[in-house]
Design a protein that fits this description.
By secondary structure, the chain is an all-alpha fold. The protein has three helices and no strands.
């Protein structure tokens, strides 16, 4: 009599159940890693943007150009002096954020500072009323 090779149905079901249990425990962990990575990227971009704004503000001190204050929204930064090297760098950074449709464009400078210093994310209302 020939001995059959292979797995029984019970062994296959047990293997599938074990894989399912492992997947169910790993998926929430992987999801939290992706959320953490997104938040870290957002904070990093906010830090770069805030540094560029502070450099620009420092370079226009004593001129008649508008100094950006904490209530200025990033998406409305249109009065940047492009003859100033720091202004060019700031404008390029904002243009890149616009290309990526970054949520940082909805932040004010004060919101950026809170994000960089305290990790406070702005809740953006996406409902249309």
């Amino acid at each position: 009599m020939k001995k059959k090779k292979g797995f029984t149905l019970i062994e296959l079901i047990a293997a599938i159940a074990i894989i399912g249990i492992l997947a169910a425990t790993l998926i929430p962990e992987v999801t939290s890693y992706t959320v953490n990575a997104k938040n870290t990227k957002l904070r990093s971009e906010a830090r770069m943007l805030l540094n560029a704004i502070e450099l620009y503000n420092a370079s226009i001190q004593g001129t008649t150009n508008l100094i950006l204050d904490g209530n200025t929204e990033i998406s409305s930064l249109s009065t940047i002096d492009v003859n100033n090297p720091n202004g060019v760098a700031l404008k390029n950074l904002i243009d890149k954020l616009k290309e990526k449709d970054s949520e940082l464009l909805n932040y004010t400078i004060s919101d950026l500072k809170a994000l960089v210093e305290k990790g406070e994310f702005k809740v953006i209302n996406t409902s249309s009323n």
